[in-house]
């Protein structure tokens, strides 16, 4: 049976609010998906445990590092919510043939800038300017398959196509 082994990102671009390409990006760190937990202890438990809360995620941040300060940074550093679209060509290796297989990676994030780090100004060097986005929504699609779809304000928490929040929403009406 043939499987695709992930190898590398060939190329990537980031767009903001649909069509404007963000230039000068050196690196993007995607949000960490961490579920909120309740710490439980009691007579029936030998110590403490953390129980992940269904459908509830902790704070998520997107980090974009830039080679230098540019106009694109000032356009998104305005305390308003923006939608960021990362598009990447991801190379895999077909385990049966050894040939390269390309897959599309789409990451869509809605959020607001919460940190701006200007970086260091030094002759002949990058400033390594950094922007941290506090995420309100986070969606990851690989080769057409939805992997993650979190919308905090829309109360959606879907992992591999299963909306975890729907598991308890019917109990609320």
From TrEMBL:
Pfam families: Phage_tube. InterPro entries: Tail_tube (IPR006498). This is Major tail tube protein. The lineage of its organism: Bacteria, Fusobacteriati, Fusobacteriota, Fusobacteriia, Fusobacteriales.
């Amino acid at each position: 049976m043939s499987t695709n082994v992930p190898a590398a990102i060939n190329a990537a671009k980031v767009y903001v609010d649909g069509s404007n390409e963000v230039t000068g990006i050196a690196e993007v760190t995607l949000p960490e998906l961490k579920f909120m937990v309740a710490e439980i202890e009691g007579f029936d438990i030998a110590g403490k445990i953390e129980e992940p809360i269904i459908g509830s995620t902790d704070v998520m941040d997107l980090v974009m590092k830039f080679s230098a300060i540019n106009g694109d940074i000032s356009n998104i550093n305005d305390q308003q919510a923006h939608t960021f679209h990362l598009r990447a060509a991801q190379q895999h290796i077909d385990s049966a043939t050894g040939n390269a297989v390309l897959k599309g990676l789409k990451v869509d994030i809605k959020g607001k800038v919460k940190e701006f780090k200007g970086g260091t100004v030094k002759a002949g060097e990058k400033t390594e300017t950094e922007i941290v986005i506090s995420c309100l929504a986070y969606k990851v699609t690989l080769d057409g398959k939805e992997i993650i779809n979190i919308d905090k304000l829309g109360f959606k928490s879907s992992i591999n196509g299963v909306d975890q929040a729907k598991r308890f929403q019917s109990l609320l009406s």
